[in-house]
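ARCHIVE CARD
Drawer: 12
Card no.: 0347
Subject: one protein chain, sequence and derived structure
Cross-reference: see card 0346
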Amino acid sequence: MEINQREEELISQIKAKKAANRYKWSYLLIDLISDKIELDMSYSDIAEWLTNQGIQISENTLKNIIWRYKKKNKKLESPIRTRTETILKQRIIQQEKDNIEQKEAINYSEKLRLIEQQEKDKNSGFDQFEGL
């Protein structure tokens, strides 16, 4: 596989941080292999590719790093997702209330119209006596 300039920079940063026993190199590793993960490469292929680039990492370590990263992302996205779901639920409830109010308004207007019609029908019998 060809390596672009961004990947070369990340590889050199990972090597430097890993050699200095810094813990932040795993985030750089995730940035480096995120494209490979999206291409559905296996963990062993990714580990082999990293070894070819000079970064010694076992398949299990790679799995753990990716798993922790995904878990952390899920945890960070959870409140956002919950908030958007709450907003959507509130909108749906409000729409249902509006629909119910509209139906009730239609029912009331229909009932009023029927009552007026019945009153007209009751009173129509007396109209014929007006000319007497």
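Annotation on reverse: The mean pLDDT is 78. The radius of gyration is 35 Å.
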